User: What shape does this take?
Amino acid sequence: MPFDPTKSDSSITRADSGIFRAMQQSPESIELQDVVSRMFLIQDVSELTKVLSEAAIRYTKARTISVFLRGDDGQFTGGDPALLPEKTVLDYVLEEARHITVPHGNGWIVALPLRVAQGPVGVLVCDVTGMAEEIARMNLEPVTVLCGQAAVMIHNALRVNRSIGESALLSNILDSITNAIITLDNQGIITRLNRNAMAVLELTPDVVGKPYKEALHPDVAAAVGALLKDTEHMGYAMEKMVTAKLDQGIELNIAISTSILRDEAFAPLGTIVVFRDMTASRELDRLRKLDTMKSEFVANVSHELKTPLTSIKAYTEALIDMATEEQMKSFLKVIDEESDRLLFLINDLLNVSRIQSGKIKMHYTLIHPRTIVDEILNISKINSEKHKLVLDMAPGLSDMMLDKEKLKEVMINLISNAIKYSPAGGDVNVRFRLDESNLRIEVQDHGIGIPKEHQSKLFEAFYRVDSSHTASIPGTGLGLTIVKAIVEHHGGRCWFESEVGKGTTFFLLIPARREIKRGELGSEIGSMV
Assistant: This one.
């Protein structure tokens, strides 16, 4: 049956603030005061609703009582869902602040408001089904007074619980922040600190309530004082660096910054002081500088080594052409080959240095992929009497934008690795084909393979597989680092598959483009510097 307020006037009674005073001398009033006194001692919301329900059921003799509390989202929770009135009844009871008796389901209910000046708290619902005569005689004034008192206490308890929850959440947030944080009031008294402040600054929880000048290390306190003055006069302060020696002898490098703490009305409540431990950052800066110096040293030494080696190689090649005795030619050929080895090593060092310093640049030209292989076939590093290079160039490949010199370097590294790690000889398969819109290159050997525990680090600079099978194989561990960097600068990627005793296959996937705009692929079009 739909709710119609105009037909329920006989059951509506407004709570009168003077009822409590008028009933003061009656036993009913004394019992009511006892219930209210009990409620004053309770802070738990569920316990308050329980006491309210027990008192209401004594006064009304209802079959059951349910208390529904209104949440911030406007939904009602906490009671028997079967007794929850329809929305129009709830709205009427809470807006008019009046109790009402209405049909509900197959029976009848009495709904009483739980409301404070700030707004609705909830409703108390009595199931009075089958109590037609009792309803007519029912005195709801004590229950109405009780609901008014209970609403205030429930409202306050909810506010306290919400405040405690927000405070706990704030504490958890502050403790989760890696920086040390202290809050000060306008007199410089510490009001809060997080766990990291206690750890970094060697403080204990009992410093709350003490002036920061007493709690902090003198050097730190002096820096905080200067920041507070700057903040007060100019509204902001530049971050200050401080080095302090704590009680345990630890030297602490910290950066200190401040900001004004304001209330909801934007009035200043105090100051937030943030301390950043710079020890790790300074060590990281030192390591970065050392790494930069190392890269520059390698680059400079490599340049210095390359110049005389180039001359040695040039004169050796001239002597080989002029030599008449076979033994002399043999000696000179060894010098020439070892010069090649040194030049390859120096070029690898230079390339890694450029990669690490970000100075690698690409020079793209429109070429056919076959050109790359054709120009490296005569290089001694990829020629072996025990190995056969098997080239499979798929039909339909066309010219594409590639850095020829760098891809030649990639192919030399991969093929020479395939030869070195196949000491028993055999085929080295090199395949070129299109994979959708990409050039796919595969270099496969049938050698010793790579153990699984080494595979994740294979592309790291200077990393070499350390085993009895590789001890006699020369190398620096730079080749694959260079391969990966060059392929990625082409906008591609590389990976491998390997099985111990069966060999390894390296895969390169490079976008097949006929034009590249300046700045694409993360690199300028130009020569390597």
User: Anything to note?
Assistant: Residues 283-357 form a domain with the Helix Hairpins fold (CATH 1.10.287.130). Residues 1-24, 522-529 have pLDDT under 50 and may be disordered. The chain has 15 helices and 17 strands.
